[in-house]
Amino acid sequence: MIRWAVILAGVVLAGCTSVEPTEVPTRVKAVEATLPPPKVFTRAFPTPPARSNQNIASDFVSLHFALESGAELPTFTRFETPITVRLTGTTTPSMQRDLNRLLNRLRREAGIDITQISEGQANITIESVSQAQIQRILPQAACFVVPNSSSFEEYSRDRRKAKSSWTRLRSRERLGIFIPYDASPQEKRDCLHEEIAQALGPLNDLYHLPDSVFNDDNFHTVLTGFDMLILRAAYAPELRSGMTRDQVQAVIPGVLSRLNPRGDNLPAQPRSETPRDWVNAIQKSLRPSRSAQRRLQSAQQAARIGKEQGWTDHRRAYPYYLMGRMGQFDNPQEALRQYQIALQFLRATPGTELHQAYVTTQTAAYALAQGKGPQVLPELDKAIDVMTRAENASQLATLLLLKSEALNQAGRTSQARSVRLDSLGWARYGFGSDVVARSLMQDVAEGSPNNNIGG
Known about the structure:
There is one protein chain. A 5-stranded mixed β-sheet has the order 2-1-3-5-4. The protein folds into 2 domains: 2-42 and 274-446, Tetratricopeptide repeat domain (Serine Threonine Protein Phosphatase 5, Tetratricopeptide repeat, Alpha Horseshoe), CATH 1.25.40; 53-265, Collagenase (Catalytic Domain). 54% of the residues lie in helices and 6% in strands. By secondary structure, it is mainly alpha-helical. The longest helix has 18 residues, at 292-309. The protein is globular. It has 18 helices and 5 strands.
């Protein structure tokens, strides 16, 4: 049933993992009732950072002394007392389960004294609101964190006041996080990881980081080993709120030597800054309000800038990946060429296995459409292992569906059925039950697709 796999891949890569809050037809409800239960991740696989402490120290300062907009922050800030977290609003069981896992990881891996409370004023209040409420304030945001607010109502009222400005913040005592309840379980979990990490530590994102959620490319969706090291360092006794950039630069090398001695033995790599023009071009290429032609032109501009910078890393590959996404339905052969260019740079860059797995989701679909499923099974298995470790259920579900079709093409139908069931369980977590049921119904209604690319 390759049609559903392609549809699902398109949903993933468009970033649309939300469950639409619309009435579900009776036939779809019947299909949903027969689906396997949602699968959940129970184990984290954080990989220690494989870069020099000298590079990590520079990243630490850049992450803590600027906002994503480029605005500079005058002082270092963090919580100076044990941290309490409260979950309010229209919460769901998956949110509480994923919050428990995240808090356990923060205590264990980052050494942060953080606990959840059920009543009273918390240092970090996570309020579950609707997507519509979030988009009325920040149309491009899936979720967000703000200083000095404990409710969506308070922030809506005070968001233009000085108290809500990150640049005026001198210490962290009370923060608010707003997450949509009407999103897929995975999207809510991803929001928990990114926003709690920013509530505790860095407020900036850096595109040159290959192994971090502090990167607007969104390849990593749960906190990595690098992220946990950054957070552990942020709460080291050598640091305190109010320190200047120069003061932090002076002490952070010693902090990292103590927390990550392995990094002292790794050679420092030349650091290549990411020009604001490249960031702006990437952001414009991702903006759905712009026309397809203008988005493509922005991605092409980012590719030119990357070439001018002499990059060979994941940043050089990213615009080509985006161009592949843009053309995968209208011009599939050209899209495949863009994906292959992206893979050329990624395969030459250590630590980009996750980025490569994202591209595999697309290139494997092309191979399957040409009946070459058995040939791509090793590649799919590698990507499935990578996505499992990255805890990305939506991509994992897509890859498993592609593997199921590849097994069918190889004549291994019994194994294909088993893999397909695994995919459905992950899809329920990654996309939400409604999306899965609707896709199944469309698949059943339309029957078997032809094998033409883009058909």
